[in-house]
Write a structure and sequence with these properties.
The complex is a heterodimer of chains A (about 850) and B (about 190).
Chain A lengths: L2 H15 L3 H12 L3 H16 L8 H9 L5 H7 L3 E9 L3 E8 L5 E7 L6 H15 L9 E6 L5 E6 L4 E2 H8 L3 H20 L12 E3 L5 E3 L4 H6 L9 H5 L8 H4 L6 H17 L11 H10 L19 H14 L11 H12 L15 H7 L3 H23 L5 H21 L8 H21 L4 H17 L3 H19 L4 H16 L5 H17 L6 H17 L3 H16 L6 H18 L2 H16 L7 H16 L3 H18 L5 H17 L2 H19 L4 H16 L3 H19 L4 H17 L2 H10 L2 H8 L5 H14 L3 H15 L6 H15 L7
Antiparallel strand pairs in A: 1-2, 2-3, 3-5, 4-5, 6-7, 7-8
Helix pairs in contact in A: 1-3, 2-3, 8-12, 8-15, 12-14, 14-15, 17-18, 17-19, 18-20, 19-20, 20-21, 21-22, 22-23, 22-24, 23-24, 24-25, 25-26, 26-27, 26-28, 27-28, 28-29, 28-30, 29-30, 30-31, 31-32, 32-33, 32-34, 33-34, 34-35, 34-36, 34-37, 35-37, 37-38, 37-39, 38-39
Chain B lengths: L20 H28 L7 H12 L10 H29 L17 H18 L1 H13 L3 H8 L3 H22 L1
Helix pairs in contact in B: 1-2, 1-3, 2-3, 3-4, 3-5, 4-5, 4-7, 5-7, 6-7
The chains are: A mainly alpha (about 850), B mainly alpha (about 190).
Chain lengths: ~850, ~190
């Protein structure tokens, strides 16, 4: 039936239904004429209408009740696990059931876990597969392997894991009466496993002793990595409803988990802290017995736990002295701090302190952390709006305070500087730096709004002190600039410059400086047309500067810095290095020049050296800079992280691949915490690591990292974008080189198809992906298909895209492989000759170099006929 | 776009000319979240009291209460949410019914003791699956009507809400509902 027909039927139906029953048939017979089918249809409808026993008349509740109140999915589940024979139930927890099973062909024991309450919606099932691949790649002696995972027809997730025969950690220590030292060593092993997972971007989220088993031989196994994520549901922080949490024991859950906020690596640090507490004190930090879930949550989120050593005061364990207990207290309570920012920054830091303790050295964590008051912390996390309003009021109050206090200053210049400095400090260190862009997305948004609102009021508030107003605008501009809130920063810069000019006249040096700072920002935005804008602003300021006989010393620094930045973005690395170096030198001579700005300048210089091609110098400067930063900023502040990324990049460019990987490993967890997994810099770090691993021949590492980048970039930009496709292609090549030909070919195919979809048949990237696929196929022996693909590849396009002028040598090598395998040795020889000059160079890629040698040698076994 | 335009696309706008990828993504997210929340609630209820009646309308309301606090849903109106929830509820029930069906067929040891085997009426599960197919058929003929049935039956929207949601008069809703009911009943009876 089509829709016109249906409309017709309905119209007749309604008309007839309004008539008394006795007249309906007659009316219809005349209306339908010779169309018997139409008549029958309408009559049938009227019939049903009269009966009104449609399903729709019943409450859907009745239907749902019948369907949903069903209690036994287990037998069906058994059928779905083809290779596994279920032996018996191992246990049943809040999350679901665990079965012991035997793999039929291998006769090995596995554990199968079904998550009962985590039915996945169709959209999430796709993501599930990607996530499970990551988890399956976790390969560590202390982490129970995930062998397989999937989803039943109704959406229930299941996991097949290594079966571990052991006792929960706390139980094991109790039964064997382990000493403090022994417990710490076990704990150490656990931490190392967690650290490994973090380095692979996996957070456990549900660490507790029952997830940490210890085998008879004393080795540790961690279970259930990442499974808690499936229960929590979607990734965005505010979607974690508290219903899910009620299913887990709250004892080990961190305050932010309980509040439903974002989970990060510090969440695992917290849980580790609780576990350590329990190991040391043989009780839990909070007594939750008999408390309702709501009470328990309040307790955890707001009460300070007793020190683990508390019950032992007076009766000191014969192995552990009083001061030693003080240190253990510090470790525990630092890990368990309510404020994630005040805990150990990473599991690595926690491990370090455990090591310090075990070797009798002083700890890095400091006990004054405990004097930090709970009240302040709770207030800080109230609704973001309140915080922002308070902030603005505080700004005003502070400024007035300083105005009043400093009218006593006799020297005018000192007073101005003093005001500016204190305001700057307050804004950058207290107000705007506090809102971590990742921790509470909403907070920073509201704070920004509040700041913008505050800005509108500043001029009015400081009508009589336009200097102050100008400085405030300038400071706000700089802060927003560093947080990449460019549009608003622009407005603020302009306002500041206008005010300065109104005070000091058209040749106001402060106005010029403000504009120079703005020019630098414009260049950095990478927006279309911004570089010319930046150049124009710079040119204008240089013109003004020419009219000033003796400009201030700091003005010169800003001038050089702006020139450097513009050169850097304009790809003139040499000029960038010169200018930044000069700016650095000039700043060094000015003791009053803001320390942090000087250091930021130095960071730009480091980056310029990398771009310029002098990575050794970049490495040296980067190391100096890291040391210098430590006295001024926290080890994990975004600026320091940036330099550490530069260090890794420099090391890689110096071909110090192992060191580059080491450095990347050290800093990756901090990047994830401070900037977020999908931040551009974090991805650059992963890319640096991946490239270094590739050069070291660590295929597993490269593949793992490339696939991670692919996952994140796909999520962020959609899979049909340039960066994800290129990364997937890279990953596939690494897989092929590692001998994982089927996976590699599958990914290469996907990359090629995606590229065709996104960029078309002839795009350079499509050809690049094709080449990767062809390479794989050659190894798989599918020469014809490979050959067809290679014919389509436009070497020029790929050369241009990759920036490698000798790229076509790769094509020659591949064609040579094909020719050789087909027995056409003459042709193979020709291709090898073509490729040889490129791949015998000292800086040639090791893999290709080796491949060329192998092929060459093989060809030589078939000498050319002598003519 | 072929896959997205299929019958399983959640909450399609009436004039689905241009829906941006971001909007699509947002809708998918909303749908996923709603689906999972309903599933979770359903199992919580069913686990709690075996004799408690499952009331999908109540579930939808409770889900709305919880999820409306999420910033993701800040831009969603209650009506819009309910429509998506209705779709999610439909999907949830259909999947559950399918699962039950396959159990009945495949399980060796499991004794099937549904009383309907001897009744004239088919089991609720089977009926629901038939309703689901029939609704798809209806959607091909008159999409708005199918949406209405979905919203009213699965989402528990009343006449006024449905009229507001579809932007037609209440009288139109009543007429469409009556015709749809009759037609669906016929389809279900025919299928037996």
């Amino acid at each position: 039936m089509d829709s016109n027909r249906w409309t017709q039927i309905q119209s007749l139906f309604h008309d007839a239904a309004d008539l008394p029953k006795s007249e309906q048939r007659a009316f219809l017979e005349s209306a339908c004429g010779s169309d018997d089918i139409l008549l029958a249809d309408v009559l049938a409808l009227l019939d049903e209408d009269a009966r009104s026993s449609s399903l729709l008349d019943r409450d859907v509740a009745y239907v749902a009740d019948q369907i949903l109140n069903d209690k036994s999915p287990q037998p069906a589940a058994f059928q779905e696990f083809g290779h596994y024979k279920i032996k018996h139930v191992l246990g049943e927890g809040g999350m679901g059931v665990v079965y012991l099973a035997e793999r039929e062909d291998l006769h090995s024991l596995v554990a199968i876990k079904l998550l009962r309450d985590a039915s996945l919606s169709p959209a999430r099932r796709e993501r599930f597969a990607v996530e499970q691949r990551t988890l399956a790649q976790l390969n560590h002696p202390c982490i129970a392997r995930l062998y397989d995972a999937g989803i039943l027809a109704d959406g229930t997730p299941w996991f097949v894991m290594e079966y571990v025969d052991g006792l929960p950690l706390t139980e094991y220590c109790r039964q064997r009466n382990c000493s403090i030292d022994q417990r710490l060593r076990l704990f150490h092993a656990v931490c190392e496993a967690v650290l490994y997972a973090h380095q692979n971007a996996v957070i456990h989220r549900d660490l507790k002793p029952s997830n940490i088993l210890v085998k008879n031989d004393g080795s540790v196994r961690l279970l259930d990595f990442g499974i808690a994520k499936q229960i929590d549901g979607a990734d965005a922080p505010a979607d974690q409803t508290r219903t899910a949490l009620r299913l887990m024991t709250p004892a080990y859950a961190s305050p932010e988990q309980i509040r439903g906020e974002r989970v990060g690596i510090q969440t695992d640090v917290y849980s580790l802290g609780v576990i350590l507490y329990e190991l040391l004190a043989e009780r839990l930090p909070f007594d939750l017995s008999g408390k309702t879930p709501a009470e328990a949550e309040t307790l955890i989120a707001q009460t300070e736990p007793q020190k683990p050593s508390a019950p032992f005061k007076g009766k000191i364990d014969r192995h552990t002295t009083g001061t030693a207990w003080a240190d253990l207290d510090v470790i525990c309570l630092t890990a368990m701090h309510k404020d994630p920012q005040r805990r150990y920054r990473s599991v690595e830091a926690l491990i370090r302190d455990v090591d310090h303790y075990l070797s009798g050295e002083p700890l890095e964590a400091r006990p004054d952390t405990f004097r930090y008051r709970m009240g302040k912390f709770v207030k800080r996390n109230r609704r973001a709006v309140t915080a922002a309003t308070l902030a603005f009021a505080a700004v005003v109050a502070l400024v007035i305070f300083f105005l009043v206090r400093l009218t006593r200053e006799r020297d005018n210049a000192d007073r101005q500087t003093a005001i500016a400095d204190s305001i700057n400090r307050f804004l950058s260190n207290d107000l705007l730096a506090r809102s971590n862009p990742l921790q509470s997305g909403k907070a920073s948004e509201t704070l920004l709004d509040a700041v913008v609102q505050a800005s509108a009021n500043i001029d009015r508030q400081f009508q009589r002190e336009p200097q102050v107003a100008a400085r405030l605008h300038q400071t706000i501009a700089r802060s927003l600039d560093s947080r990449t809130d460019y549009p608003v920063a622009r407005t603020e810069y302009d306002r500041a410059a206008a005010l300065f000019s109104s005070i000091d006249g058209p040749l106001s040096q402060d106005a010029i400086i403000t504009q120079l700072q703005r020019a630098s920002m414009e260049a950095r935005t990478y927006e279309a047309g911004s570089l010319p804008v930046a150049k124009k602003i710079l040119a204008d300021q240089e013109a003004l500067l020419a009219k000033i006989p003796k400009p201030r010393a700091d003005l010169n620094v800003w001038l050089l810095s702006a020139r450097g930045m513009i050169a850097l973005i304009g790809n003139d690395a040499k000029s960038a290095v010169q200018n930044f170096q000069a700016a650095q030198d000039a700043a060094q001579k000015l003791p009053s020049f803001d320390q942090r700005t000087r250091l930021d300048l130095k960071q730009r210089l480091v980056f310029a050296y990398i771009r310029f091609g002098d990575p050794a110098k970049a490495e040296q400067l980067a190391r100096e800079l890291i040391a210098e930063y430590s006295s001024v900023a926290g080890a994990d502040s975004p600026n320091v992280l940036r330099v550490r990324l530069n260090l890794a990049q420099a090391l890689m460019n110096e071909s110090k691949f192992a060191e580059a990987v080491q450095e990347a490993n050290k800093i990756y967890p901090s990047f994830v915490t401070m900037l977020g997994e999908d931040h551009e810099l974090t991805m650059q770090l992963l890319a640096t690591r991946a490239q270094s691993e590739g050069s070291l021949g660590d295929w597993d590492g490269t593949i793992r990292d490339d696939l991670t980048i692919y996952r994140i970039a796909s999520q962020k930009q959609g899979p049909l974008s340039f960066f994800p496709i290129a990364t997937l292609s890279d990953a596939s090549m690494a897989q092929c080189r590692a001998g994982r030909l089927d996976e590699g070919a599958a990914n290469a195919r996907k990359a090629t198809e995606d590229s065709q979809k996104a960029f078309g048949e002839r795009a350079g990237i499509t050809d690049g992906a094709r080449f990767g696929l062809a390479d794989c196929l050659i190894s798989l022996g599918k020469l014809d298909e490979a050959s067809v693909l290679l014919q389509k590849v436009d070497a020029k396009a790929v050369t241009q895209l990759s920036g490698d002028p000798n790229w076509s040598a790769n094509l020659d090598l591949a064609l040579g492989q094909i020719a050789f395998r087909r027995g056409d040795f003459a042709a193979a020889r020709k291709y090898v000759q073509s490729a040889r000059p490129v791949f015998t160079r000292p800086d040639a890629e090791p893999y290709q170099k080796h491949a060329l040698e192998l092929l060459s040698a093989a060809i030589e076994k078939h000498p050319a006929p002598v003519n | 776009m072929a896959i997205r335009d299929s019958k399983d696309a959640p909450g399609r706008e009436r004039d689905s000319t241009a829906i941006t990828p971001q909007q699509r993504k947002a809708l998918d997210e909303l749908f996923s979240v709603t689906y999972e929340e309903l599933r979770r609630l359903a199992s919580v209820v069913s686990r709690g009291d075996p004799s408690a009646t499952m009331n999908p309308t109540a579930l939808v309301n409770e889900a709305w209460l919880k999820l409306s606090k999420s910033p993701n849903l800040a831009a969603t109106s209650r009506l819009h949410f309910k429509r998506i929830a209705a779709r999610a509820m439909r999907q949830l029930l259909v999947e559950a019914a399918r699962r039950r069906n396959s159990q009945k067929r495949g399980a060796g040891e499991l004794t099937v003791s549904f009383d309907d085997s001897f009744d004239e009426k088919p089991s609720s599960g089977k009926e629901l699956l038939a309703l689901d197919s029939a609704l798809d058929e209806l959607a091909k003929m008159q999409p708005r009507q199918a949406l209405m049935v979905e919203a009213r039956f699965f989402g528990g929207l009343d006449i006024a809400e449905t009229a507001a949601m579809l932007e037609v008069s209440e009288a139109t809703i009543l007429r469409d509902w009556r015709a749809a009911k009759a037609w669906l009943a016929r389809e279900l009876h025919r299928g037996r």
